[in-house]
Amino acid sequence: MNPATAAKTPKIPKKTASAVASPWATAPDREQQREAKRQAVLQAAAQLFNERGFHATSLDDIAARLHVTKPTLYYYVKNKDEILLQCVSQGLQMTLEGIEASRQAGGNAVDQLRACMQVYADIVMQPFGMCLIRVGDEEVPEPSRTELRRMKSEIDQAFRRLVAQGVQEGSLQPCDPKMTAFVIAGALSWIGRWYQPGGEYTPEQVVQQCIATLCEGVLRRPEPLTAVPAKRGAAPAVARRTAIR
């Protein structure tokens, strides 16, 4: 090459090596994906347990609901007993966390009691909460059964404390906190057995009507007596009843 021509030829910059995006997920991403899939397994299982019952549901049924093979499930769970334990545990944990959040929000005993009732009723209409109600803890093998019963006891004690506090404040009628807590939790728990999504009432309507019935009762209160102003020279005023609006 002529040296003169070479001097006029522009220099071409060398290409720098660019980083190649790895098709493999990082460790945190893999763990996140695995947890998402495990939760999908639990959600599908809870729905089937609620629809068919624990004993009538097989791992094949759960795999079919997720459109995967049965061996795939073993990447995320050990067996059906573990699935049930995780479903019920999540229902209980959601309830305990919701009750604690209601307590932290403050207010008087009645405010907190209503908030706890709202949380409890909301959760028993969700798959994990419904599973907690529809599948008895006797289905869970020991030692997990004892732990689940301990967590259930925490929910009961939370209701008892709020009822006792309300009685002490004078905002609730004098009553036995233990029996009253049983009635409240029992009534709200039963929602998880009869509630069907897509029915006549929305979840919000179910919750509000049940709480109103529990807090206000079903008996009609006597209408207050008001005195009719007596006309001059007339007989003594006759009490009349006025309707509560």
UniProtKB/TrEMBL annotation:
Biased composition, class Low complexity, residue ranges: 1-10
Region (Disordered): 1-36
HTH tetR-type domain residues: 35-95
GO molecular function annotations of the record: DNA-binding transcription factor activity; transcription cis-regulatory region binding
Gene3D superfamilies: Homeodomain-like, Tetracycline Repressor, domain 2
Keywords for the protein's UniProt record, in alphabetical order: DNA-binding, Repressor, Transcription, Transcription regulation
DNA-binding region: 58-77
Residue ranges that the Swiss-Prot or TrEMBL entry lists as coiled coil: none
Name of the protein: DNA-binding transcriptional regulator, AcrR family
Native organism: Acidovorax soli
